[in-house]
Structure formats: C-alpha cells, structure tokens
Amino acid sequence: MAVAVVPSSSSGRQDYPGRLTMFVFMACLVAATGGLIFGYDIGISGGVTSMDPFLSRFFPSVYRKQAAAADDGNQYCKFDSQLLTLFTSSLYVAALVASLFAASVTRAFGRKWSMFAGGLTFLAGCVLNGAAVNVAMLILGRVLLGVGVGFANQSVPVYLSEMAPARMRGMLNNGFQLMITLGVFVANLINYGTARIAGGWGWRLSLALAAVPAAFVTVGSLFLPDTPNSLLERGHPEEAKRMLRRVRGTDDVGAEYDDLVAAGEASKAVSHPWRDILRRRYRPQLVMAVAIPLFQQLTGINVIMFYAPVLFKTLGFGGGASLMSAVITGLINFVATFVSVVTVDRFGRRVLFLEGGAQMLAGQVAVGALLGAKLGWSGVAAIPPAYAVGVVVVMCAYVAGFAWSWGPLAWLVPSEVMPLEVRPAGQSITVAVNMLMTFAVAQAFLLTLCRLKFLLFFVFAAFVVAMTLFVVFFVPETKGVPIEDMAEVWKAHWYWKRFVTEDSKEDIEMGCTGGAKN
Question: With b meaning 16 or more CB within 10 Å and e meaning fewer, what string describes 243-275?
Fold first, then answer.
C-alpha cells in the first residue's frame, strides 16, 4: 500500500508544511464544479417527468394513469412505468461503463483531461435532450450525459484530494458534493419556472439548460493545473516539484515531495492496477470503494431527489406545489452540505456518518409511518394539505441528515484512502458501484413503491441501520491524515490490520526496500 515514509525521528502520522493558497482554492473551486452537471441532472430529470406536457408527449400511458389516479385512484402506482424510469436511469448505466474507461484516461493523461472529456460529452447530450422528438432521442441523450457524469465523477474527487493540504482535505473535497447539491437546487428552481411557460415547451428549456454547467466544466478544466501526483505518475518530476511548491505556498516541500516520488515509483511498478487492487494488501481500500457508494444509494436519497416532484404529487400536491416542494428540499440539501464543509475536518468523518445515519433512520421511519397511516395498503385516500406539509418537513430533516454525512463523505473517504498506484482504478470502482446502485434503485423505485407501498420506506430504514453498523465497526477515522500516510490508519485498525501487516514480504510503507515495517 502506498503511504509516506515516517521518518525515524518521529512516530505515527505527520503533517507537511504549507497552507491553503488562493491558487489551490480557485483550482479546487473550478474542479468541484464538475459536480454541477451531476446535480443538475438529478434535479432536472425528476422535475420534467412530473410535467404534463412532457408526459403526454413521450409517456402517454403514464399521463393517462396519472389522470385516472386523480379520481380516487391508487396513489402509489400512478407513475409506475419502466419506460419512464429507463429515461431517468439510463444515464447511470452509461456513467458506470464510462467510469471504467475514465480510469485509463485519468492515469495516462491526467485528471483535468478526464474532466474536459466529461464536460464535452455532457454538452452533446444536452443538445440531443433539448431537441428530442421521440423517446429514442431522449434516451440517447441521457446516455451521452451519463458518459460525461462518469468521467467527471471519476476524476474530480481524486483531483481535489490530491491538491488539498491534508488538514483541509475534507473541506475542499466536500466542495464536490456542495456543487452537486447546488446543481439540484438550481435545477428545481428552473423546473418550477419552466413548468409555467405557456405552450408546454418548458421541459425543453429545462433539459437544454444543462449545457450551462457543462460549458463551465469544459472550459474551466482547460485552465486547471495538473496535480503534483499526476505529474510524477506521468514522468515529469521537475514540473511536479514546481507545482508542489506553488500549491503549498512554500519552498519547504522536501518531505512531501520525497513521499510523492516514492508513491510515483510504486505507481510505475504497477502495470495492471485493476488486477493489483484485488490483492490482499489493498483489501481495506477495495471494501471502502465498494461498500460506501453502495450504502450511499441504499439510504434512498436519490429516490427522494429524483422523484421529489413525483413523490409530492403522489402525496396530493398539485403540479406547481410539488415542484415548489422539490425546491424546498433542494435548498435544505444545499444549505445542510455547508455543515459538513465546516465540520468534517474538525469533528472527523465518523461523527458525521453516525449522526447522519441516526437522523436518516428517524426520517425514513417517520415517512413510512405517515404514509401508512393516511394511505394504508390500498393507496386510495385524500391527503389533507396540512398532513402533506408534515411529510415534507420530515423529508427535509432526512435530506439534511444525508447532506452533512453520507452525501459528501461517500465521495471523500474512498478518494482519500486510495494509494497512488491504484487510485484511478479505485475511484472508478467507487463511481461504477455508485452508478450501478443509482440505476438499480431508480429503475426499481416506482415499481416497488407500487408493490410495497409505505413499507418501502421501512426497507430503506433497515439499510440505514446496516450501513451505520458498518461505519461503527469498519470505517476508521481519516481526519488530518496525509494521503501518503494512510497505511498507519489501517495498521492501527482492529480488523483491517490483519491485511496490511501479516504479509511481511509486501511493501506496505513507501520507500521500503525490503519487507513491511511493523
């Protein structure tokens, strides 16, 4: 595992000289906007699928079922359509596949060019979606959007973790999630406005305006500097040292540079990162890359964010009111993410994981109980406005809990624990699992809501219990640990230490010329 050499004169973890420079802050700000395209899509897709002109043009069967449900029909099943959910979730299959290819691009050409490729492809998808005349054009556009999301989500968290000083890595990396939530909020506002456009073409504007954040990412990536880690990995040591001095704002970068060189040498020695990440020494990182994004989607958050307008229509809100309710939850999501930004490097990752898990558990149980009490198993009932508002309040509390815990941390933790030699492959696995689970949950949600009714929210509550226990027992604290020194975390953990200390023939610490140091 690639981590920094701990000098013989010290023990445990070290920090490197340097500060947060304006250069690094601006670079991270621009890079984090890669989250805008993902967030905008999450918000926009749920909104347009609740617009009657969009449904009547592309999904007439859903439109008819919705009209029938308005006359005391089953509120749980009125949006049940696999074609409709395919429109939403096709993006995530494309993102899954693209993220696997993005690992090779990121390693060979650098992080910034993966961001550029993602932004450019996303732009092409925006054009197709905005001009769509049939379902095939819509889904092809979604596939291109997915390729863009796959490249951006693979490269941006890695870029942020490599550029940030260790003691501020959580704050800067969480900027990615902050941009995702900003994208969701802006998309909800746009949907609320375009739904009121006379003539029924507002959905086209909603879909086409995704080109704005895509253009920002595409152009912005051209001006981003390469990270020192990437420059070393691609064989540019002098340029890497100059960049390290610039990003740390000091000439005293010898210790960090030596550790990066050792990481670069380890990276060059790994010619098959996809195969190597399966080796025993990388077992803790591989588990984090798979389990954390998997659990993130099993919180049910993207169900809420994708289908918030649809869900609120199911609760009895009118079209405009349902879109406004989605705006409110989007705003809560954005504001609550700031809590994580300002606390993650102070209180640590585990505290936020655990508190957020408890809050989400309470939220899912409350929503399930409220829906069950009013709609029952038949799903046929009129929901009073005051009751529906109560459901929205509970959902907002749930969204806030997610926004300062599993939202940002599911991107931060996997990206910061990966050693350089398998980092692109590891981040690709994280993105691929995230997209696979997003697709599965999005594709299954409306069907399972129709079949399981209010019990579906108790299923998500059970998953929240499982993931919180996973954090308690298996996720170590990584606050303030340099990414080149992360092996010390695993060697100190009650369970993971058996994977990084048992094989003395493996080079666990950077710079070792012999066996691992224990």
Answer: bbbbbbbeeebebbbbbbbbbbbbbeebeebbe
Q: Look at the block and give the residue holding tokens 């000091």.
A: 250
Distance from C-alpha of 403 to C-alpha of 408, rounded to nearest angstrom: 7
Pick the residue with more confidence: 127 or 196? Answer: 127
Q: Per-residue pLDDT for 445 more than 70?
A: yes
Look at the pTM and tell me if it is higher than 0.85: no
DSSP-assigned letters across all residues of 325-394: HHHHHHHHHHHHHHHHHHHHHHH-HHHHHHHHHHHHHHHHHHHHHHHHHHHTTTT--PPPHHHHHHHHHH
d(CA 25, CA 32): 10
Residue 390: is it exposed, middle or buried by C-beta count within 10 angstroms (0-12/13-18/19+)?
A: middle
Q: CB count, 10 Å around CB of 277? A: 23
Please check the confidence at residue 355 and state whether its pLDDT lies above 50.
yes
Residues 30 and 173 sit within 8 Å (Cβ to Cβ): no
Burial 462-480 (b: 16+ CB within 10 A, else e): ebbeebbebbeeebbebbb
Calpha distance 518→516 (Å, rounded): 6
At which residue do the structure tokens 């590891």 appear? 426
Contacts of 88 (CB under 8 A, 6+ apart): 45, 46, 49, 142, 306, 442
